[in-house]
Design a protein that fits this description.
The chain is of the alpha+beta class and 260 residues long. It has helices spanning 2-18, 54-70, 128-146, 148-164, 208-222, 238-245, and strands at residues 22-25, 29-33, 45-48, 75-80, 97-106, 120-124, 168-175, 178-188, 191-199, 227-233, 248-259. GO terms for molecular function: acyltransferase activity, transferring groups other than amino-acyl groups.
């Protein structure tokens, strides 16, 4: 049962990325390319389908590095749905940035165990005004780490898909009438994916994040979803909030990023 559920989650993950990127399937990997935002790491990457041995992994990476260098590309991003031993990637030039993520899951009916703050409400961005507020909250939450210009390009690129894909929606969190956060929700074939979750820094750790999670799980429950999941940095403090909400770790994902 766990294997079957994991496969359904991974299939949903592919559907999510395919909202933004074209995919090229090869024997061992799938290459995702977003021609509209080529400098977006999470839309442009190579996904290894299955675990491979250390020597084979190193050879695969070496070959892909040669390809992107010939094409004068600025980075190579490889992802895999499992953990790796960091020593397996020693002595690469340039040295890669390696991040371990975890898949966390929850049953949507757990939404009624979570509290919502009295001064907070969460709305689906199904009008121009709410979408505009969501874009504003996204840029404000991410401009410090991404830069305002790229943060704006990124959320506007995503907004194109919110308008075109009825299964992918943005939800905006308000404190009274001020947009203070947002989050995506994709629902496909009984699985809900929670993604791109941000609360503006000055409003973090005050219960607003929990309020957003409650709303998304409630929506998933209304739509008869079996399981909801999200992906978070394995070593990030956000994981603790999700645990408090009832999520538990179900699997792992590794990102290998070479800046060239």
């Amino acid at each position: 049962m766990k294997v079957e559920l994991y496969e359904r989650i991974l299939e949903t993950e592919l559907k999510y990325v395919s909202c933004f990127s074209n995919c090229i399937k090869e024997q061992r990997s799938i290459t995702f390319k977003d021609s509209k935002l080529v400098d977006m790491y999470m839309h442009n990457f190579i996904l290894l389908k299955e675990s491979i041995k250390k020597d084979e992994l190193r050879s695969f990476i070496h070959n892909k590095l040669k390809e992107v260098q010939r094409e004068n590309k600025e980075y190579l991003h490889i992802m895999m749905n499992y953990s790796i031993q960091l020593h397996e990637l020693k002595n690469f030039i340039p040295e890669p940035q390696i991040t371990e993520y975890c898949y966390m899951v929850i049953t949507p009916k757990e939404f009624n165990k979570l509290k919502i703050k009295n001064d907070c409400y969460v709305r689906k961005a199904d009008t121009f005004e709410v979408l505009r507020d969501g874009i504003s909250a996204d840029v404000q939450a991410n401009k410090a780490t991404m830069g305002k210009e790229f943060a704006t390009k990124r959320i506007k690129r995503k907004s194109e898909e919110y308008k075109n894909n009825p299964n992918l929606n943005l939800y905006v969190c308000y404190k009274e009438d001020v947009p203070i956060g947002k989050c995506e929700l994709l629902i496909e074939d009984g699985i809900a994916k929670i993604e791109d979750f941000d609360i503006i820094e000055e409003y973090q750790k005050q219960g607003y994040g929990t309020s957003v999670v409650r709303k998304l799980l409630e929506q998933a429950y209304i739509e008869n979803v079996d399981i909801a999941y999200l992906i978070t940095d394995h070593f990030d403090t956000a994981k603790d909030m999700y645990k408090k909400c009832g999520f538990y770790i179900f699997g792992f994902k590794t990102s290998i990023l070479f800046n060239l």
